[in-house]
């Protein structure tokens, strides 16, 4: 069947060098389709070009922003002090200063103990700049070293006579004094006397073991407690004894009551601190500051 004339389009191709023009007859329908395809392809190409252009410009903007940020970072690096820029350094610095401060305090406590005739302990410098080897100790080792010192210190302090067996004023100090029973005779007073009323509590000044609890001549009712470092405390003229020989006592325990038993002119507590069996001045042990 032959198509209708109106459905056919004629394309005329004219070549400059040839005299005769060529004519081509195509169904109009096909030309329409071709035009749609061409338009479609053109649209896709245009859209892709647009996208490529958009992405390219976006990229440029991003680059520009990156450059600006880098410039800002460079400026900040110059402005910020090195210590802040490196937090690890700062932490190490403050840890070192804490270690030095702890060491100083340990040495102070050590001096208190040494002045009381106690052994104390050797403080190995870990934080000081003077001892480079020790300063290189890993943190955990330095901390365990301090832990050991503090453990030692805690037990030393608990077992070292310290403070008052009762809080009151002293009526008599350690040393020579005139004999209260014979004014022409000088007598050595081996402890200090605390004022008190009959029945007032007497507290032991350090943890230890009771080695004597009973009557002891001039001391009357007397308690003696043994502590570490060859130290002993003695509490005399008691009206009542609250402990037994062999009993372990903790610093602050009530070991007896104030009285006036034995060689005594009035109700008071006689308190002695003995080192290696010899009386020493208990005033040294009343506070840490002397
Ligand atoms: Zn006395």
From TrEMBL:
<dbReference type="InterPro" id="IPR011055">
    <property type="entry name" value="Dup_hybrid_motif"/>
</dbReference>
<keyword id="KW-0812">Transmembrane</keyword>
<keyword id="KW-0472">Membrane</keyword>
<protein>
    <recommendedName>
        <fullName>M23ase beta-sheet core domain-containing protein</fullName>
    </recommendedName>
</protein>
<dbReference type="GO" id="GO:0004222">
    <property type="term" value="F:metalloendopeptidase activity"/>
</dbReference>
<keyword id="KW-1133">Transmembrane helix</keyword>
<feature type="domain" description="M23ase beta-sheet core">
    <location>
        <begin position="188"/>
        <end position="282"/>
    </location>
</feature>
<dbReference type="InterPro" id="IPR016047">
    <property type="entry name" value="M23ase_b-sheet_dom"/>
</dbReference>
<dbReference type="Pfam" id="PF01551">
    <property type="entry name" value="Peptidase_M23"/>
</dbReference>
<dbReference type="InterPro" id="IPR050570">
    <property type="entry name" value="Cell_wall_metabolism_enzyme"/>
</dbReference>
<feature type="transmembrane region" description="Helical">
    <location>
        <begin position="37"/>
        <end position="56"/>
    </location>
</feature>
């Amino acid at each position: 069947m032959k198509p209708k004339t109106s459905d056919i389009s004629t394309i005329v191709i004219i070549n400059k060098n040839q005299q005769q023009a060529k004519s081509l007859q195509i169904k109009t329908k096909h030309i329409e389709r071709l035009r749609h395809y061409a338009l479609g392809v053109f649209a896709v190409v245009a859209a892709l070009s647009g996208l490529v252009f958009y992405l390219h410009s976006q990229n440029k903007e991003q680059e520009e922003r990156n450059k600006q940020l880098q410039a800002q970072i460079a400026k900040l690096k110059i402005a910020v002090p090195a210590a802040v820029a490196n937090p690890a350094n700062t932490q190490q610095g403050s840890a070192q200063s804490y270690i030095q401060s702890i060491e100083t305090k340990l040495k102070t406590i050590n001096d208190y103990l040494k002045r009381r005739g106690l052994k104390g302990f050797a403080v190995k410098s870990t934080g000081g700049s003077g001892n480079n080897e020790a300063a290189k100790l890993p943190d955990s080792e330095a901390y365990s070293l301090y832990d050991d010192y503090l453990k030692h210190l805690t037990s030393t302090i608990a077992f070292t006579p310290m403070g008052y067996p009762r809080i009151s004023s002293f009526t008599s100090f350690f040393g020579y004094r005139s004999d209260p029973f014979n004014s022409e005779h000088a007598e050595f007073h081996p402890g200090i006397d605390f004022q008190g009323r009959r029945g007032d509590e007497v507290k032991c000044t350090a943890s230890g073991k009771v080695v004597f609890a009973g009557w002891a001549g001039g001391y009357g009712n007397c308690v003696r407690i043994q502590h570490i470092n060859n130290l002993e405390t003695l509490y005399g003229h008691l009206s009542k004894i609250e402990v037994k020989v062999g009993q372990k006592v903790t610093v602050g325990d009530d070991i007896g009551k104030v009285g006036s038993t034995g060689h005594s002119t009035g109700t008071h507590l006689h308190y002695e601190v003995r080192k290696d069996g010899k009386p020493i001045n208990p005033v040294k042990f009343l506070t840490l500051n002397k």
